[in-house]
Amino acid sequence: MNSIAKLLKEKPSKVLSIYFTSGYPELNDTTRVIENLGQSGVDFIEVGLPYSDPLADGPTIQDSSTIALKNGINLDIVFDQLMAIKDQNTTPLVIMGYLNQVIKYGEHKFCEKVVACGIDTVILPDLPMVEYENHYKELFDHYGINNVFLITPQTSEERIRKIDSYTKSFIYMVASSSITGAKGEISDGQIQYFERIQAMNLKSPLIIGFGISNHDTFSKACEYANGAIIGSAFIRHLEREGVDGISEFTTQIVGS
Amino acid sequence: MRAKFQPDENGYFGQFGGAYIPELLYPNVKEIEDNYIQIIESQEFQEEYKSLLKDYVGRPTPLYYATRLSEKYGAHIYLKREDLNHTGAHKVNNTVGQILIAKKLGKTQIIAETGAGQHGVATATVCALMGMDCTVFMGEKDIVRQAPNVARMKMLGAKVVPATSGSKTLKDATNEAIRYWIQNPHTFYLIGSVVGPHPHPDMVARLQAIISEEMKWQLKEKTGSENPDTIIACVGGGSNAAGAFYHYLEDEEVELIAVEAAGLGVHSGESAATSQLGEVGIIHGSKTILMQDEYGQIVEPYSISAGLDYPGVGPLHAFLFDTKRAKFMSATDQEAIDAAFELTEIEGIIPALETAHALAVLGKMELKSDQVVVINLSGRGDKDLETYMKHLKD
Fold this sequence. Notes:
By secondary structure, chain A is an alpha/beta fold. Helix content of chain A is 48%, strand content 14%. A 9-stranded parallel sheet of chain A has the order 5-4-3-2-1-9-8-7-6.
């Protein structure tokens, strides 16, 4: 069983996941951010690989990626940073990047490095299902890596069922038709969508992301899914308060 | 059997193409994929499209025998006058077609990306014609560089939204358009070139194919044969080249030459010669050849021409390059400027800077005296006068 599936089995509700951009705010903050998030009670962490053209991300994450790239981050440095904390870190990590980074780095080399860092789960938002079926499933299976699929309010039931059958960790449930970026509230329309998915009784755990930004939206999301992912709101907090202010953020989200 | 240079059912030309899109975009793209061929091949569409091309755009565009240019280079050189289209370039062939597709799909809001502003103007034009709402994404830098086209778009009623992310140019404008499309799935993304996720490259190629469709009968009339020996076109994303090559792709005796912008020189570090400098990767939802660094970060290209400085190339062109069906050449900024002045001086035609790159390779070719060459004169140079004035000799 992979690290995320194991986590979700042990803790099936109110799972908090945080996305952050590696190499941000400073090049060598990657490990400090992971350490602080782990100590703050975050259940699993998405390590973002900064990309020049992140189509599925909003301005906050793109801006942080631009800064990280200016700081000099690259895949080799990220993997070195993750290797350095491999033995101390106990919080499961997920790699989030774009497919072109994987292709250019070398698909096999990428997988080897991910596994060497003790990571077994990846999210590649621009990897479409058909390409997964035709090529990447075999590659990832070979390395024991599991791929997380996204579903949206527009994803058909048939497609969701198929995604459920491919899923080995969790389904990333995009809260609305949107790119990443906090909106501050959850609408009735979104709740209807959450209820519709909940009623499908999927075998895979659901984690809601995109637009989760505070205690209220996190709690609401947790009523309909096993947990939620926060990205942009965390990046903004990091920008304001720095790495030392991380626990303050997670306390706010989870509530007392 | 599928023709060699047509995409397969997943939108691949050989290893290039496909639809590498976030799940968020899947329904938007699927709607077009499920409908575009049926719409384009319907009699109703064809009648309306051809009628607008004739009476509104001004087609067929002339195939002009350039006597003095032919004498100078010692070959029979014809110019396919896309510069005479309404709005001044081939771009409008595609926007007229796509606006009709949008209408059939019941869409009323159009979005588009633009670099130099030519596609933005062509989109704003057909939106005005059809009474549709138009939003054009344009890099903040390009908005400053291409002020006259920004003014045209605004006069035509379009909203011009600056793309402020990344390098603030065409690739970022395309990212912003795609993001807006994700958040507003009811809009129609009227893409300007043979790029993007399948079926966009194929859809745009089919709509630009009118160029080579006309070339066939025009050449037949003028030379007795439908086929020239050589066709030359410039390539940024590659829409005018796709249109000029389209009906000759399977006819391998016709030599196809694609000309990329070499900027200050292919290996100067300031270039947009994607086929020479790029490697296989993914950009804007398509697997193709693109300019990137060793970690797959997309590199910002350079060319004097804002229509050619795109870091990728359409997947069809990547396939034509890979299979050597087309010969890829390049021209520097200076060579393009010189070619533009030459055509102006001896033929009285001021070409667009993009088009000037295609003209610039004539001097680099070994032409035979009976060789029939067609150059796709993709656009006129009015928009580039400021640049040309800087190079005007007293």
